[in-house]
Amino acid sequence: ELDFSPLEGKTKSQSHALFAQSMHAYLHDPVTNHFPGGESPEVAADRALSCLQDIAAAYPKQRVLVVGHSTLTRLALCRALGIELSHYRKRFPVLLNCAVTQFRLRDGDASLVALNLPLSYLEFSGKDAIL
User: Fold this and answer.
1) N or C: which end of the chain has fewer CB within 10 A?
2) The pTM is what?
3) 72 phi, psi to nearest 5 deg
């Protein structure tokens, strides 16, 4: 996940009370106005996409289950699909907890196959997860 530094462990209400100006700027543009001391969304997006590309290269033409957090997943999707990072909450407003996002990386191309599928979408057969 992204390191939100001063916001870690705080509720939205607490964050707004403690950092009113920073929260307003962050909600307007979370990339340009990320929290001081926290991880840059641009760096996080590059880190996540690089990891996914490494996995795709290590397991060509195979399906791999990767578990992650909402913000980092949305940033990686934006980076891979050529969507401006500051729009990650607009383009992907909700990634449900424990939901399946199916994403394909092939020959340098990225595509979003499915978003927010129920966990029951995964069928387990022995050691293989079939998406």
Assistant:
1) N
2) 0.84
3) -65, -40
